[in-house]
Amino acid sequence: MKAIRVAVHGGPEVLKLEEVPIPKPTSGQVLVRVQAIGVNPVDTYIRSGVYTSTKLPYTPGADASGTVEEVGPGVEQIKKGARVYTGGTISGAYAEFAVCDAGSVYALPDKISFAQGAALGVPYATAFRALFHRGKALAGETVLIHGGSGGVGTAAIQLARAAGLTIFATSSTEEGRKLTITNGAHHALNHASQNYLKEMVALTGNKGVDLIIEMLSNVNLGKDLTVLAKFGRVVVVGSRGNVEINPRDTMSRDADIRGMTLFNASPDELKSIHAALYAGLENGTLNPMVGKQFPLSEAAKAQEAVMHSAAFGKIILVP
Known about the structure:
This protein has about 325 residues and is of the alpha/beta class. The protein has two domains: about 1-120 and about 290-319, Alpha-Beta Complex (Quinone Oxidoreductase, Chain A, domain 1); about 125-265, Rossmann fold (3-Layer(aba) Sandwich), CATH 3.40.50.
C-alpha cells in the first residue's frame, strides 16, 4: 500500500510517499480501508518535532474514514464492510489502510460522506470537549469562537447552536465570515479589525461573553480576559507561543482560564463525545464542512494549508 512516512523531524518536505506492507490487525484491533484522511494542526507539530513522543519513522495522522477491511480476534461489535470514522489510529492515517484499536472506531451514518467522516475525529471531539467538558457551556449563554471558519471552529459553531447558545464567531475574511453565519453563528466578526471586541461587547448589552473558545491564545488571550462576563471562562484550545496577561482581568470577573487537549479525555468522556456526535449527524444538527482536498501524494501541501489562517472547513487527503 501507499503511505506517507516521516524519517526525520523537519518541514513539510520530510513527508515522503512510500510503498509499505499492509498492516495486520491483532487482538482488539480493526483494519480500515481508508477513503479520506483528516489533516490536523497537531500533525504538523509532531512532524516538526514540537511534540516528540512519536517514535521515528512513522506514518502521520489520527483522523480517517473508510470501510472495515478486517477485524482482529475478540472484536465482535464491528463488522467487516461497515462504514466508519476513526478517533485515532495505531499505524497512522496518512495511508491506504490503517490499523485502529476497536474502541477508536465509530459508525459513520450513511448520509455522511467519507470526506465529512474524516473531519470528525479530532475537530469535532475537540470542539465538544472544549464547549461542554471544559467550558461547561449552558443553553442561553453567549460564546465567542475564534477562528470560526476552520475545522474546530465550524464544529464548535454547530455544536453550540444545537445546544442553544448565542454565538459570536470570528474570521479575517469576508468569505470566512459568511461561512460562519451559514454554519449557524448569530454574529460574524472580523478579528483583523481593531474594534471587533468592542463591537461584540456592545452586542451583549455591555455584559461580555460567558465563554470563549480560543484557538490562538498567544495572540488573543490577554484581550479575551477583558471581554468576559462575570464568572466567564476561556478554554485554551490552541497556542503558538507565549502571551502576557493582566491577572486583575480575571480577578474582577472571577474568571477562569482552562487549558484543554483531547489527549487528556478519559475513555468514558470519549464514549460520550462520540455518542453525541453520532446523534447530531443522524438528526442533521451536525454537518461537517469540507474545505480543500488533496491527493495523498500532496500531504506536504495539505499540512501547509491547515496552518493557514484563512483555512475554510476541514483539509482532507484522499488516498
